[in-house]
Specification:
Layout: H1 10-33, H2 35-57, E1 71-72, H3 89-116, H4 122-143, E2 149-150, H5 151-175, H6 181-190, H7 192-201
Parallel strand pairs: 1-2
């Protein structure tokens, strides 16, 4: 995954955020018109994102068991901790770029997870993404194939998931998702009492 450092800079990150925000808005608008179809497509996108994440993080760089087992348990150790004191500025920059990439990788993953949920809620999606990140680090440790197991990866993955969920939530609020008749009909089939109470309040 380190090769991505050649592509991460201000312009690419900005374009990436704009593209993901556009996708979140599109999914929100589609949810109003066809909730069931939108969720099915979002689930397919979720699986595609999961495959990309696993390929980027789990596929070994070296033969299995050939690495030196090491777990970085101190947050920020390679960015501003004692280990950073012995690095060249270019090395610290590369670590920072890698962590930005770690965060960015989970942004679209969280957006499509939010869009695929029957009732999109930020907290469960973020917890699920954080759990996936922990599992990835555990698998890297077991495989011991050249990848560094780092608590910062979990922190930045989770940060990207939070950003993605908030981006989706804001985009869906802006598009008015959840107020359309199709969404209310789907909600009525699942929770008749809640729908009836909502109609009474309206």
């Amino acid at each position: 995954m380190w090769r991505i450092v050649f592509y991460v800079h201000a312009w690419t990150v900005s374009l990436f955020v704009v593209a993901v925000a556009g996708a979140a808005v599109g999914l929100g608008m589609w949810r109003r018109r066809a909730p069931g179809r939108q969720r099915r497509v979002a689930r397919a996108l979720w699986w595609a994102c999961l495959v990309v994440v696993l390929v980027a993080t789990v596929v070994p760089d070296r033969p299995l068991g050939s690495g030196i087992p090491y777990v970085a348990t101190t947050p920020g150790e390679g960015l501003w901790g004692t280990a950073a004191d012995y690095m060249y500025p270019s090395e610290r920059h590369m670590i920072l770029v890698l962590q930005v990439a770690n965060a960015a990788m989970f942004v679209p993953f969280a957006v499509v997870a939010y869009a695929a949920a029957r009732r999109p809620v930020v907290f469960p999606v973020v917890v699920g993404c954080a759990a996936l990140s922990v599992v990835i680090e555990a698998v890297q440790l077991v495989l011991n194939a050249g990848r560094v197991v780092d608590v910062d990866d979990v922190i930045f993955n989770t940060t990207g998931a939070v950003f993605g969920c908030l981006l989706a939530k804001v985009a869906w609020r802006a598009t008015g998702r959840g107020t359309g008749p199709d969404v209310r009909r789907h909600a009525a089939r699942e929770h008749p009492l809640r729908s009836w109470l909502a109609q009474l309040r309206g």
